[in-house]
Design a protein that fits this description.
- The chain is α/β, with parallel strands linked by helices.
- It has a single domain, classed as Alpha-Beta Barrel (TIM Barrel), CATH 3.20.20.
- It is built from ten helices and nine strands.
- The longest helix is centred in the C-terminal third of the chain and has 19 residues.
């Protein structure tokens, strides 16, 4: 994954707790909706196998990465399965060192100013501000005061109706998870509803970023 290509549509989907049978229909739904980047969390049962299947199913039509990476071991499992980027809820030093030293895009999680700075100085491609929903878009404006050169991704509490506000406040990217990949929709295999909502996110990010479809 090239971080510059991600920044052309800075929107990431987060898949957690899905079943093997969900991989193909979910990917087809989100790809059709225009999503270009998605992660599968490593605390999902059989995550490495799901990533491997997702890479095969996608055929290069969407970037596949691994999320909730908490150790060097799980990072290596994800990369061996075909993940092209790594996302963490916190800054794990050995993972940061490996990714930054091998040109693998890495998104460590941080919340406080100290954590944000530490993550960036450790080699983050972009810092995942999590959970963003606790503080909202205004927090990004505050962070961007001293950290105007640090790239930030809002994770948590992002909805189509507040995407513009997050970007205007200084977010460089946004992500969504359970707000779209809802348990009830997954249980009912309602992939059409998932795709429809993803399309709303994609359309709004394109509108805000001035990207023409």
């Amino acid at each position: 994954m090239d971080i510059k290509s991600f920044e052309t549509l800075p929107l990431m989907g987060i898949l957690r707790g899905i079943e093997p049978g969900d991989v193909r229909p979910i990917l087809e739904a989100v790809i059709s909706a225009g999503l270009e980047t998605i992660e599968i969390t490593m605390n999902t049962v059989g995550a490495a196998d799901l990533i491997r299947e997702a890479v095969e199913v996608s055929g290069g039509r969407i970037r596949i990465g691994a999320g909730t990476v908490l150790s060097e071991g799980s990072m290596k499992q994800a990369l061996d399965a075909g993940a092209t980027f790594i996302v963490m809820p916190a800054c794990v030093s050995e993972v940061m060192a490996f990714c930054s030293g091998n040109n693998i895009p890495v998104f460590p999680g941080a919340l406080t100013p100290h954590e944000v700075l530490n993550a960036w100085q450790s080699g983050a491609s972009m810092v995942k501000v999590f959970p963003s929903g606790l503080f909202g878009p205004r927090y990004f404006k505050e962070l961007k005061g001293p950290f105007d050169k640090i790239k930030l991704m809002a994770v948590g509490g992002v909805r189509p109706e507040n995407i513009a506000e997050f970007f205007e406040a200084g977010a460089d990217a946004v992500a969504f998870g359970s707000a779209v990949f809802r348990k009830e929709w997954l249980e009912k295999k309602d992939y059409a509803s998932i795709g429809s909502l993803v399309s709303e996110y994609v359309s709004e990010v394109k509108r805000v970023k001035g990207r023409v479809s």
